[in-house]
Structures are given as structure tokens and as C-alpha cells.
Amino acid sequence: MHIIGKNKWGNSIRxxxxxxxxxxxxxxxxxxxxxxxxxxxxxxxxxxxxxxxxIAKFFSFFSNLIPFSLWDVFWVLIISLIIGGxxxxxxxxxxxxxxxxxxxxxxxxxxxxxxxxxxxxxxRPGIEKRNGWESPKHDELIFRSILDSIIIQxxxxxxxxxxxxxxxxxxxxxxxxxxxxxxxxINYPNGTRRPKxxxxxxxxxxxxxxxxxxxxxxxxxxxxxxxxxxxxFLLAHEKAHQFGITSEAEANLFAFVICITxxxxxxxxxxxxxxxxxxxxxxxxxxxxxxxxxKIDSRVRMDLRFRQNYYQGLQNKRLSKMQTAANxxxxxxxxxxxxVKNYNQVVSLVISWYYNSNIY
Length: 360
Known about the structure:
Elements: H1 2-38, H2 40-63, H3 70-90, H4 96-117, H5 127-130, H6 140-156, H7 166-184, E1 195-197, H8 201-206, E2 211-214, E3 219-222, H9 231-242, H10 248-260, H11 265-283, H12 289-295, H13 298-314, H14 317-333, H15 346-357
Parallel strand pairs: 1-3
Antiparallel strand pairs: 2-3
């Protein structure tokens, strides 16, 4: 009887452990994120430049062996399992309690793995602090000077890009990352980066998503419907995320620097053209805004109009609003205070980069 009692006690403990460990892990991760917010220097030293490069190298090695998106397949399976389980509960093939417990455990594990695999990078210091940049005072003359420079360079580097150029562009972006790794303060090579096409490109382009980084498998994704002239910049942007850059503004800055410091005209044009759009958005309140528009080469203006009409034609307004709201909430939960407005904060970062590089 004594032995039987011990076995029952042991079985009870095992059941409790099996039941609770995903929640215990997620609680530890949650508490660690609160600590990470308070000491971003520790995150930078121990995780972003310590642990994460090994994680990136490990997962990117295996994911790059697979030609299709593991991230997309993974989420299709997860959503299918949750919906399928709910249907079985409705038809009383599964107990609601068992289904609820397993779903909660799954969500707890997904939450924990997100931060362990990549998400702690959200708590690292900003690039200006990491790289010791001086922050220039807001000066309209500096803004105008850089806007003029970007317009001139966009005009000078006008060229066409074809989807057949993508493999070569990928190599050129990689080379530029290698060349700029010290200035940008990144751990190159940080594993390997194989661009993959979104499996649900049609759905995502309707919601305005051109690319994304899949942290669970360390994968870079680009939308099939992306215009070739946007490909170099968007590819460099998503690769920035693979290097542990979580801020959208910083990823845009990285993409800009990677493109314009390349010797290749296709990269230069994509980089300058993309940043021109951000600068023009900030310039709309200036009285002489139209004068700046008139400085843009007619071929570039045609590209910008075509780009706007192309994406608007593919976009579903309802899906786009839902995606923007979801992305805004996601970014704010992860301490990107401006949410989706963070993308346009690249203007101030580009000004800071010009200022600290003594370019203008």
C-alpha cells in the first residue's frame, strides 16, 4: 500500500508539471521582459550581441535548406488545429476543458518562444545610443538640404529593375551588409539569409504587406507582387530584422544605407526613391512643397505614380485597415510607442546618419 501511495503521488506531481510548465515558462519570460525594459544595456550585451547571433545561425541554417516558407506553413497548421479542435468541441468529439487547456498551453509556448528566438531584441537600446551618435537639433535647413540631396540622387540613379535581377540583387545586398557591418554595429554574417516568397502573397498584398520576418524559423519573406524597383529596399529592410533590428524606422534606415552605399545603380535608385517618399510626406506642410515636386525627374515621377496606382489597385481597404490596426497594436505591445508611425520616423534617423557621417 505504501508503494502504491508513492506511485500515485509521483504520478500527480508529473501531471502537475506537464500541465503547468508552459505557463511557468511564459511567466518567467513575461517577468524577464519587464526587467529588460529597465536595463536595455543588459539586453544588448547578453542577448542581442551574445545569445541571439547563435540562435540566428542555428535556425537560419536549417530553414535555408527548405525552399518554401516554414513560417507560413507553421501558422496555417496552428490555425487549422485551433479551428479543427473547436469544431470537434462543438460536435462533442473533444471535451471543452481539454481543448481549452491545450490551446492555452500552445499559446503560452508560442509567446515564450517568440521572445527567446528573437523578440528580446525589442528591448535593446536605439541605434543612436548603440552607435554613440550625436542627435542633431531639429533644423529645417538640414531637412531641406537632405531632401534636395535625395531628389538629386534619385534623379541621377534612375534605372529599371527586373524580377530576373533578384538573385544578383540579393548578393549585392549581402555584400553591402558585410561592408557596412561595422558602421551599422551588426554581427555579420549572423547566420544566412535566403529570401522566400510569401505563400499567401495575394492575401497579404491586399492588406498592404510587402514583406515580413518570421522569427520562429529566422526567415525573410518578400511578397510575390512586390514591384521590382522596390525589391532591393524591401529585401534590405527584412534582412535588417534578421540582424536583430526590431524598430521599423531603424530597419528602414539600414535598408537606405545598404542601398545607397552600394556601387549598383539598381540598389541606389531603390534606396533613394523609397526614402524620397518618406521625406516628401514630412515636407507636405512646407509652403514651397510643390517646388520640390517639380525638381523630381519626370521619369521618377512616373515611377512614383505607377507605384501608387499599382498598390492601390491591389489593396483591399477593409483588409488593409485590419492589418494596420493589428500591426499597430503588435508594435505598441512590444514597446514601439508610435506603432505604425514608427516607419516614418526613419526621416529623423536618416538626418542623424547624415549628420554623424558628415555627409551634407
